[in-house]
Write a structure and sequence with these properties.
Blueprint (H helix, E strand, L loop, with lengths): L3 E6 L19 E7 L3 H11 L4 E3 L2 H5 L6 E4 L3 H8 L1
Parallel strand pairs: 1-2, 1-4, 2-3
């Protein structure tokens, strides 16, 4: 089975869930890219990932890259409540 290559928009906070999908040991999925508005969160993502992921401060750069299956977006904690009102 082809490995699922995932790009994450938002890698801090709830975006930290990327750890649940990242199987760099040849598992079913691997997170290969991340975008975030925080350079600090991107640096942490890059260091923790261990697979030299593509990182960017501009989500559009990630959206335009090719992935074989999916892109995942995570919203900051306060954003969802504001959008619901």
């Amino acid at each position: 089975m082809e490995q699922l290559r995932i790009g994450m928009i938002g890698v801090g906070g709830r975006g930290g869930l990327w750890h649940n999908w990242h199987r760099s040991d040849g598992g079913r999925s691997v997170v290969v890219a991340g975008a975030d508005v925080s350079a600090e969160q991107l640096a942490r993502f890059w260091a923790d990932n261990g697979c030299d992921p593509f990182t960017t401060l501009h989500y559009g750069e990630l959206v335009n890259r090719r992935f074989n299956r999916t892109k995942i977006t995570s919203a900051p904690t306060g954003t969802l409540g504001r959008l619901a009102n």
